[in-house]
């Protein structure tokens, strides 16, 4: 290779290396900020900063469709009062997954029955996101 041909080849190699370095791992801080906003009720005042950090870390590098599914399968967990409109209230679970209520005689529920658990980040290999994330369902 002549000296004049080597310069464009070297420049191309440097440009490709720079482009490869410029590509970053996909990250979803805005989406995590929205998902980590604590709902009103027992989770108001929850540590949203820690949630965002764990969420961004847990979704880093995921394809957009996979990250979207993981975030949709995520949420704060806990117990909150749910009332039937006729004066009876029961503590019911909230968050991702099935929701059950502890129904009993009297149907009373108050602030002492409410609690906030933690933020649960969906799993790329979980049954809800396996297809979107290209993983085998459990």
What do you see in this structure?
It is a single chain. The chain is of the alpha+beta class and 138 residues long. It is 38% helix and 15% strand. It contains five helices and three strands. It has helices at residues 3-22, 29-35, 48-59, 64-72, 130-133; strands spanning 75-83, 89-94, 115-120. Strands 2-1-3 form a three-stranded antiparallel β-sheet, with no helix packed on it. Strand 1 and strand 2 form a beta hairpin. Helix 2 crosses helix 3 (48-59). The longest helix is centred in the N-terminal third of the chain and has 20 residues, at 3-22. The radius of gyration is 24 Å and the shape is elongated.
What are the salient characteristics of this protein?
138 residues; alpha+beta; three-stranded antiparallel β-sheet; disordered N terminus
Task: Summarize, please.
The chain is of the alpha+beta class. Helix content is 38%, strand content 15%.
């Amino acid at each position: 290779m002549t000296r004049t041909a080597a310069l464009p080849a070297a420049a191309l190699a440097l440009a490709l290396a720079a482009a490869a370095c410029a590509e970053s791992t996909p990250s979803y801080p805005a989406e995590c900020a929205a998902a980590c906003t604590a709902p009103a009720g027992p989770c108001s005042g929850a540590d949203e900063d820690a949630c965002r950090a764990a969420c961004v870390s847990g979704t880093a590098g995921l394809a957009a469709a996979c990250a979207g599914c993981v975030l949709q399968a995520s949420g704060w967990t806990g117990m909150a009062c749910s009332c039937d409109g006729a004066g009876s209230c029961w503590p019911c679970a909230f968050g991702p997954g099935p929701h059950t209520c502890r129904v009993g005689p009297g149907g009373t529920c108050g602030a002492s029955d409410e609690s906030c658990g933690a933020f649960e980040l969906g799993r790329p290999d979980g049954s809800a996101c396996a297809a979107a994330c290209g993983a085998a369902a459990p």
